[in-house]
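Bumping my old thread because nobody answered last time. Still need a sequence for this structure:
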């Protein structure tokens, strides 16, 4: 359950980001552009000079399916390390998710070492993960954009291609926002 007003604030944040990027409220936005706007560097493991080569290999080969992105922070600034082996739609979603954690000021709640790799990872509690999932969905597919896409009768494939999202992300946002139900309801009264 989200705190009162969170969903509305998340939609407003997605629209503010578009305004700052000088985009229409329904325009697609790439998370890399949002990171650039916020001054958040994005690196791949091979761009981390102090990362030992054996750890890099484990991240990119042995355990590439176990992680998508991670935020490194010193409390003042942030850096996102992105897994370059994933599909663009997953990368967009993962990057938007990490940006959402940063925008929401989330602090990791648990740190642990991955077995077999000795890589330290941090996780957030369920409430923070739910908030980041919601905000990242708003960043990628604001409700206003979904309504516009449905009014234009765009197919799900067109929406996914235009907004750089997976079918799963589109379904999540359509179901969560109730856009299809709203469109069906409106059609009854035409």
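Sorry it took so long. Here it is:
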């Amino acid at each position: 359950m989200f705190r009162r007003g969170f969903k509305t604030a998340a939609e407003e944040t997605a629209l503010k980001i578009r305004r700052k990027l000088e985009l229409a409220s329904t325009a697609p936005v790439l998370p890399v552009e949002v990171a650039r706007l916020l001054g958040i560097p994005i690196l791949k493991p091979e761009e981390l000079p102090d990362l030992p080569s054996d750890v890099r290999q484990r991240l990119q080969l042995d355990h590439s399916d176990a992680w998508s992105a991670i935020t490194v922070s010193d409390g003042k600034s942030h850096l996102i390390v992105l897994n370059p082996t994933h599909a663009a739609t997953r990368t967009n979603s993962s990057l938007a998710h990490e940006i959402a954690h940063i925008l929401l000021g989330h602090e990791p709640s648990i740190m642990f070492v991955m077995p077999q790799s000795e890589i330290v990872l941090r996780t957030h509690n369920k409430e923070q993960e739910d908030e980041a999932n919601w905000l990242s969905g708003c960043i990628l597919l604001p409700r206003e954009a979904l309504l516009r896409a449905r009014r234009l009768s765009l197919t799900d494939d067109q929406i996914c291609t235009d907004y750089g999202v997976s079918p799963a992300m589109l379904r999540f946002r359509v179901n969560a926002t109730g856009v299809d139900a709203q469109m069906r309801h409106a059609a009854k009264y035409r």
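DSSP finds nine helices and five strands in the chain. Let me know if any region looks off to you.
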